[in-house]
Write a structure and sequence with these properties.
Number of strands: 20
Strand content: 25-35%
Shape: elongated
Strand order of the largest sheet: 6-7-8-3-9-10
Order of helices and strands: EEEHEEEHHHEHEHEEHHEEEHEEEEEEE
CATH class of the largest domain: Alpha Beta
Bound molecules: adenosine-5'-triphosphate, magnesium ion
Distance between the termini: 41 Å
Oligomer: single chain
Length: 365
């Protein structure tokens, strides 16, 4: 296995930069998810690493080599795509053996590698079947197996689970995670599904508009999103982002909502707000950090329930606040009706504050 370094990587199509000065290091044995909305440059980035697309500028290092000008076959990588690209006429065994035959490995060595991959992926009993005799998940496993037999330095995966139904996707998610743990493989995994990234990866690289927004562990990205884009993209339901007006009087810093209510900030949060470039401050709060009350309590803010969505385990209540929609989760035994008057209490320890102009997270000291 090997580490992968992207240094100031750029891919331009005419005047448009699909990948815009991206730098990051994937350590040896790490599982990194490239995640972001459609068109943000994930596949392009992966294809640059694979050598399927020529780079405009920057460097790609795999192991100890700069691979910028190497052919894909010389980069010691294996790719797994969304469409499995299996040979329909060949058995599973032959699908796995084919890339090794192309590399002119001795027959007994091929046999050993194919059987080992089949064992790792628990598909020994499927070796004689044709792809059409397999379920979607089994076909995906064969595609993984075909990457595995090549024993590459790095696995590159582009939305490998997106053709599977929801249940199978969850199952294959844990299988790929297991695959990574067992092999200690270096994996770069592209997905637009933030939940896949959060649940599988050691680190996630959140992209938007060709730019790398944040590169850190899922826990860090979740707890400390660097800007409003990352805050709203990671987590489901999305973090509520409420535009407010900050002011300080008599040593107290308060946020004022469009409806006129005031929220007094803790000293630490007040310190953050002082650092904003503007008085426009955006309050970010995840559904689980907002308490819903049926009557006013000190520090709570009046709001009106708009929609109520029971999901079984939790009920999601949406309310309008200062022109934004706020998502709150409550236990299913709490009955809330649409248009009911409610009070929301924000957790000062777990709220996020963003600069309303730059959209960057505000930090204390
Ligand atoms: N060959 C090309 N010529 C011109 N523009 C391209 C080309 N390939 C990709 N792009 C553009 O580059 C941007 C990034 O595309 P890319 O395929 O990397 O997105 P993505 O993040 O993988 O999206 P998705 O989640 O939809 O797969 C898009 O705006 C796309 O239209
Ligand atoms: Mg893509």
């Amino acid at each position: 296995m090997a580490h992968v370094v992207l240094q100031d990587l750029v891919k331009s199509y005419g005047g448009f930069k699909a990948v815009n000065h991206v730098s990051l290091t994937v350590n040896d044995g790490e599982f990194v998810a490239l995640v972001g909305p459609s068109g943000c440059g994930k596949t392009t980035t992966l294809n640059l690493v694979a050598g399927l697309t020529p780079i405009t500028s920057g460097d790609i290092i795999i192991g100890e080599r700069v691979v910028n000008d190497l052919d894909p076959k010389d980069r010691d990588i294996a790719m797994v795509f969304q469409n499995y690209a299996l040979y329909p006429q060949k058995s599973v065994y032959k699908n796995l053996a084919f890339p090794l035959q192309m590399r002119k490995l001795p027959r007994d060595e091929i046999d050993k590698k194919v059987k080992e991959a089949a064992r790792v992926l628990d598909m020994t009993h499927l070796l004689e079947r044709k792809p059409r005799e397999l379920s979607g998940g089994q076909q995906q496993r064969v595609a993984l197996g075909r990457a595995l037999v090549r024993d590459p330095a790095v696995f590159l995966m582009d939305e490998p689970l997106s053709n599977l139904d929801a249940k199978l996707r969850v199952q294959m998610r844990s299988e790929i995670k297991r695959f990574h743990q067992d092999l200690k493989a270096t994996i770069i995994y592209v997905t637009h599904d933030q939940l896949e990234a959060v649940t599988m990866a050691d680190k996630m690289a959140v992209m938007n508009g060709g730019y790398l927004q944040q590169y850190d562990s899922p826990a860090q990205v979740f707890a400390h999103p660097v800007n409003m884009f990352v805050a709203s993209f990671i987590g489901s339901p999305a973090m509520s982002l409420i535009p407010l007006e900050a002011s300080t009087a008599n040593g107290n810093t308060v946020l004022t909502g469009a409806e006129g209510w005031r929220l007094e900030l803790s000293p630490r949060n007040a310190q953050k707000v002082v650092r904003a470039t503007t008085m426009k401050v955006v309050l970010g709060a995840r559904h689980s950090t907002i308490k819903l009350h049926k009557s006013a309590v000190p520090g709570s803010i009046p709001a009106k329930a708009y929609t109520v969505e029971p999901t079984g385990d939790v009920t999601f209540v949406q309310a309008f606040l200062s022109g934004a929609i706020v998502n709150v989760s409550v236990p299913p035994n709490i009955a809330v009706s649409p248009d009911e008057q409610i009070w929301l209490e924000f957790d000062q320890e777990r709220m996020h504050l963003f600069d309303g102009e730059t959209e960057m997270a505000l930090k204390a000291n």
